[in-house]
User: What shape does this take?
Amino acid sequence: MKKISKATLASIALLALLVSPACKTNRKKVDPVPQPPVQETRAPEVEAPPTRTDTPVEPARDFVVEDQTPTEVMPSDIDALNRWAHEKGYIRDAFFNLAEAQLDEAAQSALQASATWLRGEGAAYNVLIEGHCDERGTEQYNLALGDRRAYAAKEYLTTLGINAGRIRTVSYGEERPFEEGHDESSWAANRRAHIVLVQAR
Assistant: This one.
């Protein structure tokens, strides 16, 4: 019985060896499943809104707009320059109350405007500050008062950055009135520190 089973086992093993290569050669190759081609997807086209034909189309403008204001040319003549600077408000006189040489807020504001121009476009010019008074009071009193007014204006301009070496002062008292009248409006116009531009030496 043992012999039969050994022989049977040997035949089965031999048969397995013979069948095994045949099985390998008879295997069918499995092709991969074909994939559908990838198609590009595009966003749906949106139709542009219709343009109105009755609206005029403005030409494109540059972002940088040049300043079209002409640059002002200062007069070369010193007298014309003084008139021009006072008319434009670049140089302003400081006005005073009766018998006073203190600068009030309006006088300080006027001198601030003058200092701004003297530090900029007017930097090439020196300044003469004339002290003036109205006709009331004695000649000596008015000369002294005019001197104090001119000096007060000078001191304030120096605090605003104007070099003291550019400034001279003089007092005319009541001798050179701006208004010839004998009323309060004329007197108020004559109580001033008058700024005059002079050529630098």
The radius of gyration is 52 Å. The domain at 83-199 is CATH 3.30.1330.60 (60s Ribosomal Protein L30; Chain: A;). The mean pLDDT is 82. Helices lie at 2-25, 78-88, 105-119, 139-159, 184-190.
